[in-house]
Amino acid sequence: MWGSRIPLHGNWNLVCEDNWKAPLTTSLFFVGVLIGSFISGQLSDRDWRMLLLALTVPGLFCIPLWWIIPESPRWLISQGRYKEAEAIIQKAAKLNGIPAPTVLFDTPEMQDSKPQQQQKAILLDLFRTRNIATITIMSLLLWFFTSVGYFGLSLSTPDWHGNAYVNCFLSAVIEVPAYVIAWLLLRSLPRRYSLSGTFFLGGSVVLFIQLVPAELNVLSVGLVMLGKFGITAAFSMLYVYNVELYPTLVRNMAVGATSTASRLGSIIAPYFVYLGAYDRFLPYILMGSLTVLIGILTLFLPESYGNPLPESFEQMLKVKCFRNGQQTTGIRSSKESPKSLVTPL
Q1: Residue 341: which H helix or E strand, with range?
Q2: Sign, CA torsion 125/127/129/133
Q3: For residue 147, is pLDDT > 80?
Q4: Global confidence as pTM
Q5: I want to staple 1 with a disulfide (CB 3.0 to 4.6 A). Which of 34, 139, 217, 311 is the partner?
């Protein structure tokens, strides 16, 4: 099923002792993506002004959204702005034809609570307790290895048997049904089982490639496509699941930290593909094994589907092995808290 990378290897003569340079170029590209995430703001004032102008001018059409899209009620509550949050919730209930109480919040009691605007979160807060640290470490591993699998399969496309352009087209098209399935799973099924199932699907079919006879090239390509389907669906669901695990105070920080792990995974991915120079099945054995491993790891994370989003560290759901017969204080025991909104992607 695998051919050779004729465009890159042939045009630049990256063969024999120089073939290690091919994956290096891809890794350097993702290093640039990682660095660019931090310094693009400063560079925009100096290399590429006309390009930046073309990219940013359309953003002016988003300005009217300031008056159209309401503020997050959760964020308003965390800032002590209860009246504004109540007005937005009342309006949302009216638009959805749902009767809502006249008074949603007992303002005098809530005024006694400490708004989160007085609290300052830092990156180390993602490791402040054993439970939070475990969730963070597991999330970093999930993002890292998912990125390795996704980009590894994507970058190996030119190595498949057949027309490289057709293979690249199929590799891109398979992501469309993957996103649709991910959307449906997020709407109706628990997060852990949805993620674990797609990880198992993607990893197991990639592992089976080595068992396919050499003459059945079409079947091998089909298995790779199915593997990428599963990993792509899982990748898209990670964004939603990761957001639901962390409290409001550090939610964006957690997403930023885990997405950084994803960038590191994309930097490593070309070298997984490069291992095919020693054994054509080795990249798929490694990527499939790691994907199945994180599928198992996902089952130990807390289930966020149908639970209210945590507002504080104390309300975070507990990792399965830390529960010890006790429920997390706050959101699990509270029948008054509103359920989390399961919105379509």
Answers
A1: none
A2: positive
A3: yes
A4: 0.65
A5: 217
